[in-house]
Amino acid sequence: MAQVLVVTSGKGGVGKTTSTAALGAALAQSGKNVVVVDFDVGLRNLDLVMGAERRVVYDLINVVQGDAKLHQALIRDKRVETLSLLPASQTRDKDALTPEGVERVIGELREKFDWVICDSPAGIEKGAALAMHHADAAVVVTNPEVSSVRDSDRIIGLLDSKTVKAEKGERMEKHLLLTRYDPARAARGEMLKVEDVLEILSIPLLGIIPDSEEVLRASNLGSPVTLSNPSSAPARAYLDAARRLLGETVAMTVPSDRRGFIGRLLGRRAA
Amino acid sequence: MNLFSLFTRRGSAPVARERLQILLAHERTVTGRSDLAAILQEEILAVIAKHIAVDREKVHVKLDRGSAVSTLEIDIEMPGLATAPAGARPS
């Protein structure tokens, strides 16, 4: 049974696209058939982060409007063969997305893939509403920062009221993904702690992604961070989060590059 | 200010946490209210529509949440009963 997952946040720039790419690649690396779908019509970026920007021929709007078949628009990843991308349109606006069209495309994707991961646009308007509407579960991407937490709270309210699941009276499964986290600053009281954000939003934690330069490096290279450098701290955090999505129990840690390096130095000195 | 220096020594995160808790407690009741009123309106309308043909426009659900007392006001205008004079009522 396919799982439709929406990656959403309300606020822009918190790491939705990075997280969609990293989680999608991580699930595909574990052998699942995965498609990542860009819902940010007019401002597409998932193609760029995935390194597929020069391979886009048809897009979500073409499929929604019946101008192209789904298989013509899907782009198969060159690194992981079970990973595909359905890009958004760069030239159209979000009004080209119709609820009926989106429903049909999501239905077709459910038949082809194990995981359908929808990268939501920022905001709470039509694009974000359509991205979440057919989801079975949601990943709420949040930075430990007041405006991001507030917007996530708003999005959680919408997930509980404006989705097919909510309208049927079923519970929407929601996961918190805390990104750009700096454990040292949190310990010094300069940044909201994991526990603070969890207490305020009260949804279960999927993972803590440490603030890392590896994330920018990955997007520079056009590769999900779980593929560009799987042993880096953010990649390990995303890989753990993906395993939790698959139902595994993985101890919650904040992976760190720095501590690992010092650890290795200390290890060497001790030896 | 004493209180301020106390916070700065502790770092700014506790301030962020407190501000968010107060803000969201308020915002949740506000957005919750509009959603709840809309849901109630739909469901009440569905129940009434089973028995009487009512105009959707003539059903009003108003929810007021005060600090001490909250009120739910339901105003339904019935066709041919309340609006029309008694003599004009179809038998």
Task: Describe this entry's structure for a reader.
The complex is a heterodimer of chains A (271) and B (91). Chain A is α/β, with parallel strands linked by helices and 271 residues long. Chain A has helices at 16-29, 46-49, 60-64, 70-73, 99-112, 126-133, 146-159, 164-167, 183-187, 194-201, 213-221, 225-228, 233-245, 257-270; strands at 3-8, 34-38, 75-76, 83-86, 115-119, 137-142, 173-181, 205-210. In chain A, strand 3 (75-76) and strand 4 form a beta hairpin. The model of chain A has no long low-confidence stretch (mean pLDDT 93). Chain B is built from two helices and two strands. In chain B, strands 1-2 form a two-stranded antiparallel ribbon. Chain B is rod-shaped, with a radius of gyration of 24 Å. In chain B, 3% of the residues are buried.
In short:
Chain A is α/β, with parallel strands linked by helices and 271 residues long.
List keywords for this structure.
heterodimer, A: 271 residues, alpha/beta, 8-stranded mixed sheet, 14 helices, 8 strands, 44% helix, 16% strand, globular, B: 91 residues, alpha+beta, two-stranded antiparallel sheet, 2 helices, 2 strands, 53% helix, 15% strand, rod-shaped
Distance between the termini of chain B: 77 Å
Number of strands of chain B: 2
Question: Which secondary-structure class do the elements of chain A indicate?
Answer: alpha/beta
Strand content of chain A: 15-25%
Strand order of the largest sheet of chain B: 1-2
Structural class label of chain B: alpha+beta
Biggest beta sheet summary of chain A? 8 strands, mixed
Q: Oligomer, anyone?
A: heterodimer
**SSE string of chain B:** HHEE
- Number of discrete helical segments of chain B: 2
Largest sheet data of chain B: 2 strands, antiparallel
Share of β-strand residues of chain B: 15-25%
Proportion of helical residues of chain A: 40-55%
Unreliable runs of chain B, pLDDT <50, ≥5 residues? 82-88
